[in-house]
Amino acid sequence: MPAQTHTDAERELVELARRVLPAGGFGNVSHEVIVAAGRAGRVWDVSGNEYVDYLLGSGPMIVGHAHPEVVAVVQEVAANGTTFFANNPHGIRLAAEIVEAVPCAEKVRFVSSGSEADLYAMRLARAFTRRDKILKFEGGYHGMSDYGLMSLAPKRAGNFPQPIPDSAGIPKSLREEVLVAPFNDLDTVASLVRGHRSELAGIIVEPLQRLIPPRPGFLEGLRKLTQDNGLLLIFDEVVTGFRLAYGGAQAYYGVTPDVCTLGKAIGGGFPLAAIAGRADIMAHFDKAAVGEDGFMLQIGTLSGNPVAAAAGLKTLEILKRPGAYERIFATGRALMEGYADILKRARVKAQVVGDAPMFDIVFTEREVKDYRSAIGDEAAMKRCNALLRERGVLKSESKYYISLAHTEEDVRFTLDAFAASIAELGRARAA
Questions:
Q1: In contact, 135 and 203? CB cutoff 8 Å
Q2: pLDDT higher than 80, residue 430
Q3: C-alpha distances out from residue 165 to 42, 217, 235, Å
Q4: Percent of the chain clearing pLDDT 70 (strictly above)
Q5: What domains are there in the chain, each with its CATH number?
Q6: Which spans in 21-144 are helix H?
Q7: In the beta sheet, which residues pair with residue 65?
Q8: Residue whose C-alpha is closest to residue 321's, from 76, 69, 95
Q9: By the 8 A CB rule, do 346 and 426 touch?
């Protein structure tokens, strides 16, 4: 790729964004690139600069940008109306596909975002058990609700199980309803469950927390603890669903929760998420099944709309084809192994953490097993990401997402860019 250039038109857009958008963007993410187009595993900014894209819209574009089959079905469905606030064939068929694919899914309820899905899953646990408290893990991301934003990225080490709010505006009273434990620490979880059994509704966990894999026996231990104590086990699979395997992390790791949340991949690039679980639990969405006292209200204007559902169904159809996951894993492993070799040869105190479909570099030598051990040299990470962006590699602040559309050429280009970025980072540190 040629050296990047930035046009006056781009600079004008950046300035306009700063005037009309808080912090100059659509959320608290990097805004250095204003993307104009995407195709397969690459995107182009408004100045025409090309990037190998591992941001992938924060994960939804698992089959690549502007996949022709997804584009075609979206155009066809949209021509007949985009939303009706009523059942539609595409949503019903997508729900049926999720029930067939995901081990815990006997019934499905659609919403429009992962944050909504996680919020409703926690409410569902409270409705089913008639208890109030939820146990989550430090560093685990469960959306933007007040419950989800407890101990996501605390700036100080709290005392377990006391949660630390990650945002202004969260009521202090809510801290009493959330317990926090370290990921991969089954002993601490067991102790908290014993001490709060009569109050706990459930445990919510990312089976692969951000990038941190579960230790052998950890998820199995959570399953046994929840079953033995009458709690619900909720897998937050907004990220891992249909990414680690067609049946998600629960199929990949062989542990079936009571309820899971899904998002990103199931919408094919459109706003769509879901709660899925056992029929007796999901019955709390149905007043006729559980009565007034047990009924859990949920309404969403665009939930399960035909365009998003059709895009999601086509995306899952593509992922279900022979060889799809083998290709995603092969691409991710090639990058992970290449990165590890580059870091070793450069004698950089960093490591590759995650699994093939989603990973990143952590600038630390210690074993990464939970949120606190995953905190490395954040300045080095930020600088490395910036150097990669300058060389035409786009990623999030904390993750590489791999798509079915990434090619061997993309891998070679990325490894070259990473090697050059690590070398420049080393020279700057030595100066």
A1: yes
A2: no
A3: 36, 29, 22
A4: 99
A5: 8-66+322-430 (3.90.1150.10), 68-319 (3.40.640.10)
A6: 68-78, 89-101, 114-129
A7: 40
A8: 69
A9: yes
Which candidate in 118, 236, 258, 370 is catalytic? 236
Phi/psi for 423 (5° steps) reads: -65, -45
d(CA 39, CA 46): 14
Neighbours of 162 (CB within 10 A): 13
287 labelled catalytic: no
**pLDDT, mean over the chain:** 96
Retrieve residue 84's tokens. 């009706």
Contact status, residue 103 vs residue 250, Cβ threshold 8 Å: yes
Tokens of 292: 């007034």
Query: Is residue 276 a contact partner of residue 283, using CB atoms and an 8 Å limit?
Result: no
Residue 224 annotated among the catalytic residues of the structure? no
- Between the alpha carbon of residue 98 and those of residues 309, 323, 429, the distances in Å are 12, 20, 49
Which of 141, 246, 252, 400 is catalytic? The answer is 141
Closest listed residue to residue 231, CA positions, set 216, 221, 218: 221
Two structure tokens written together for 285: 């969405």
Length of the chain: 431
Q: What are phi and psi of 165, to 5 degrees?
A: -60, 145
Examine the pLDDT at 29 and tell me if it is beyond 70.
Answer: no
- Phi, psi (degrees; rounded to nearest 5) at 281: -80, -45
Active-site residue, from 136, 264, 314, 399: 264
Nearest Cα to 282, choosing from 301, 266, 298, 271?
A: 298
pLDDT band at 326 (very low <50, low <70, confident <90, very high): very high
